[in-house]
Fold:
Amino acid sequence: MNKKAVVFGATGLIGEYLVQELIKNPEYSSVVLFVRKETSFTNSKTTQIIVDFENLPAHKNEFADADVYCCLGTTIANVNHDKEAFKKVDLYYPLQIAQLAKENSANQFIVISSMGADANSKFFYNRVKGELEAKLKTLQLNSLQILHPSLLLGSRKEFRFGERISQIISPLFTPLLTGQYKKYRPIYANDVAKAMIKIALQNKKGINIHSSEDLRLIAN
Structure:
């Protein structure tokens, strides 16, 4: 095949695995990475575009007929507890990307959200993710794939204290999560990446939401 992927968040935990899987996948002949600084990815398939989100529209032609993958995300601690800075990365940027995807005839938009996303949540993180999903749904994208992974397992370049503690203790409680609670089981980031690609290759139209357990089953 001659498919094109456009990736945002290529240096994050899921994003890195995603790029590796896209490079290996014969369905994709071109993988365009929008990054803030050059990465270590070097492959005949990959093109790196160093970009500031203020001038992102200048690269709108890259979106045409592409599968647009959005893995952007940060933590409130990483932005010094600045809620607006957090929303810029987790809400405003993904919305801007999705709007460009729509305006420039992208094939589909695949985005990492979160289990518990709810625009009315008491928790800031979940509320922002819920706001993002609500606004994405109003864009009437050709194909919108929203992923709800649970706690992510994998090795990050950056240290996230809460996530690291959860990863350490997760082997103790994971066996207890059965039946209706299976969806809360931690999931490996590389499984999320594999599932993203398999979902994209299904070319489902409309709005589709994928739970963490769905992602695990799709990946394997």
In short: The two ends are 22 Å apart (CA to CA). The chain has a mean pLDDT of 89.
